[in-house]
Amino acid sequence: MNKTFTILKREYLSRVRKKSFVVMTLLGPLLMASLMIVPVYIAQVSDSVYDIAIVDDTRLFYTEFTDANNVRFINLNVDIDLAIELLKEEKFDAVLHIPTTAFHAPSTLRLFSQKAINMNAKLYVENILKNEFESMKLAHAGIDAEILRATETKISIQAIRLLRDGHEQTDYPEVSMAVGLFSGILIYFFVFLFGSQVMRGVMEEKTNRIVEIIVSSVKPFQLMMGKILGIALVGLTQFSIWIILTFAIITTVQAAMPETFRFTPPEQIYTAGSQALNPAELQERMQQVQQHNTAAGQVMESLSAINLPVMILSFIFYFLGGYLLYAALFAAIGAAVDNEADTQQFMLPITIPMVFSIIMAQMVMNNPFGPVAWWLSIIPFTSPIIMMVRIPFGVPVMDILISASVLIAGFLATTWIAARIYRTGILMYGKKVSYKEIWKWLKFSS
Amino acid sequence: MDYIFRAEEVSKKYDKHQALTNVSIEVPQSGIFGLLGPNGAGKTTLIRIINQIIAPDTGNLFFNGQKLNPEHIKEIGYLPEERGLYKKMKVGEQAMYLARLKDVNHKEAKVLLRYWFEKFDLMPWWDRKVEELSKGMQQKVQFIVTVLHRPRLLIFDEPFSGFDPININLLKDEIMNLKNQGTSIIFSTHNMSSVEELCDHIVLINKSEKILGGKLEDIRKSHSSQIFSLTISGQKSESDRLFEPVAELLEEKPQRDGAKDIRVKIREGSSANDLIRHILPQADLHSFHEELPTMNDVFIKTVTGKYPHERKSQSDQQGIKNKVSEIN
Predict the structure, then answer these.
(1) B85 vs A208: CB contact, 8 Å cut-off?
(2) Are A97 and A110 in contact (CB under 8 A)?
(3) Does the structure's ipTM exceed the value 0.95?
């Protein structure tokens, strides 16, 4: 045990001291934080203004174009050819031509520009014309546009989860999905990243023959476990630093730019008192609440619905469990082959359940409590990813307990199998191994 | 005699491949024991069994009279034939690590390493990465970590490969030093001249079986090919008749002063004494000694059943006869 610790220490320190580790550890949180901050920031900062000249041959619509955030309209009462000439002189960015035929044949509408068309501007223009054409047609048909507008209803049901303690909690299935999928992918990524580090480490020891020296002092099993646990610790270190730094960065940015990331606690819309309100008042109140929250604030609010400590703890557990399960197999592969190229054929059985989990994650998200989701979150080869996808939806404790025990049993089993392949493989050189060969190694007594 | 290590009837089979068949060896205390054999004979398997890296299928193993157990690992030092180091790790750090794995405590390891590093002029390289070292220097580091924990039994598998002649001598001196300090050494090699130079006892393994074993000198004697070299002068008859019927002339080389260097092979039924008695009345005998087979010869003879010179000696003999007739 003492020697396993000595090995673990070396494996850990030699990796943590590497430049690549330091760079990854510092860059990771920057990337993650910027993933959350940059989109919000960009949404706030307006783009450069896009000037569109309107040549309206019908003289019916040009007044309807109101300037928006980054689109400005200029009414040109000139011939289209002249407008195009002006466009070539870069007086504006684009020319919208509404020919007289436009109303009956909208496909004759044209938007000219010298550079690539700004998609947003195009959509904005299309939207205005659509509304105008529609209301004109309604007027033709004798229908009052106002009445029609009043009948339009936007429905967005608020999902409320009744917690066991009687509290209500606003549910955001979209956020649960995103968080679950993100954690699942992160586990996939971590297991592969650190699992292949185990494999490469074993291969390094085998190809440079230091393993011969080491196994004369320690048991192969100690060497293998020292390596696997040392690298697990590297992973945990990296993950912890990422979490801490990401939070630190986000908090700092939030504090530095409070306006952009304003977040007010969610207001209970449906309260005892609100039943008494009439629909108009209720509508008003809802709008108030919605206007109150910025986009970023909403993201923050919905994130608060996720039980973060539970997510982090279960992430650590499933990362460790999944990693240990697969790392032992990675170690066995590293021991069985002589060079990186030969690893391919043995990697397949490891890759398939992992990739399968990621593919199935979509299905599990749509029905997180169905039998497929349940079984996949119990089977140890898929459970680390699938369970992480399910947990944000609130998984019964019993399921987690079963899944966790099966996962522990699973990695004990793979470690046992891997150890048998490992101890034969590390001392076997210059032999191209096959699955048949490995099967024989499994049956050897030491 | 005291034995540091004994193996009794050890067998090991890998799948369909028989690696060792009832091999027994006795490694005496404080001597150098040569473990010889062609590639694939089972030497490495035997060494791995001694190191408890693998277990034999059958047979008993004793270290210093006790049944071999994991406690003995720290009493053994092993320098494998295929050996390496972590290339990206610093030399000193790596040596410390390997010493720690042998249960040498931190403080002691530091003192011992300093002693050895200074002896081998490696001190300036302590904080350098292994990949910056020459191959010879890496081998020195490996040698140091093998002997550092003062094991009672050392196992060297082809220790001289990768060394230049100067360092080979340095290493040989160290090995002899260790032997004189009472360390027992198992020495596995294909280099028969170093076997002759260093080993006291040998065992020869071929195709998983022990085919020869014992004291080096005894073995060479028992493999005597009855070939003698002598220098004579003033002979009373022609050389090819001179030795009949006791011995057969193999080679004749006249020297400047009229004496001749001669190689003869004693015929069956005669002895060296008979040969001397036979020559003395007919010539002046200046020197006489037996040509003992080299370990190389013994090795090849035992493994292939033929002496290396026997195959070519027939044509050689023809050449000599032609030469003799020319002189006549």
Answers:
(1) yes
(2) yes
(3) no
